[in-house]
Amino acid sequence: MVNTASKLLKALCSMVVMLALVASITAMQIFAASHGIYTATATPHYKHPNTGVIEDSGGEGSSVLGQSMVDSATEGHALVEVDANGNTYATIRLNLSQYTSNQQFYIDTTGTGSYSAVSATVMQEDYANDTTDYRIQVPSENTIIRCTMYVEPMGRNVVWYITLSNLQAGSRDFITSITVNNTPAQQEETVPAQPQEPVQEPAASSASETTSAETVSSETASSEISSEVSSDTSSVLGIQEFDAAGNTVSNVSSGIGSEASGANTAVIWGIIGGVVAVIIIGGCVWYFCFFKKKS
């Protein structure tokens, strides 16, 4: 009896360790967006996305109706802007403007329901679609935003939450407030050739000068094409990095690719290590709890 209880305890401990490993594998570090202008998916939540708490007076009994209500009140897209100093701003688009008033916004500073009020600026109102855009400053695009507004047909305030995800470069039909500068690659200066002294062999000199002129022309054309390609690439990306002194860094795509590659490699090795650890632990549990018992 004691031996069986000991084996059960070992099996339980092994399961706890395996669950902890799986949790550590699935957990991924979240990086803040770099300097640029993005559109994001805006997801409304009647319940707090982390704690599950419902602050709206409708309560748990009205959670299905409440979720439907906040889905109708929240536009599915938002604007995220990160300026050169790393400050992040979110523009939230709310519907039903003619039936609502007193819109207020708060940021969840800890992700657990600790809020701080933020001021909102009305960026634009679309009377045809009955929407209003509100711009607020947030710590990052991963911040949980708490919203409240008075709904006139209901005669009370409504409370819900918004999270942002799936950032894509661009601004859609939102009004932007920051400028992202794209500095084209610096073109090489071509030094004009100095006049040559006449030589005694005019035929050979002419051939040499023709070859030299063709070489300079080829190098100049190559330099101009390279500069145009670099400028076009910078313009298409629409995102520019800046160093600590505020100077533009032209090699943006290379830096982003390196960071993404490093992050992906770390995640892949973390998954491989976690799977190996789970296999080893599972083998130990099987040996001590089943195979050894049968032996």
Task: Characterise the protein shown here.
- The protein is of the alpha+beta class.
- It has two domains: 1-32 and 217-295; 36-169, Immunoglobulin-like (Sandwich).
- The protein has helices at residues 2-26, 63-73, 202-237, 252-294, and strands spanning 36-45, 74-82, 88-94, 100-108, 115-118, 121-126, 131-138, 145-151, 156-169, 241-242, 248-249.
- Strands 5-4-8-9-1-2-3-7-6 form a nine-stranded antiparallel β-sheet.
- A hairpin with a 5-residue loop joins strand 10 (241-242) and strand 11 (248-249).
- The two termini are 17 Å apart.
- Residues 19-30, 183-193, 201-218, 225-242 and 249-261 have low confidence and may be disordered.
Topology record:
Elements: H1 2-26, E1 36-45, H2 63-73, E2 74-82, E3 88-94, E4 100-108, E5 115-118, E6 121-126, E7 131-138, E8 145-151, E9 156-169, H3 202-237, E10 241-242, E11 248-249, H4 252-294
Antiparallel strand pairs: 1-2, 1-9, 2-3, 3-7, 4-5, 4-8, 6-7, 8-9, 10-11
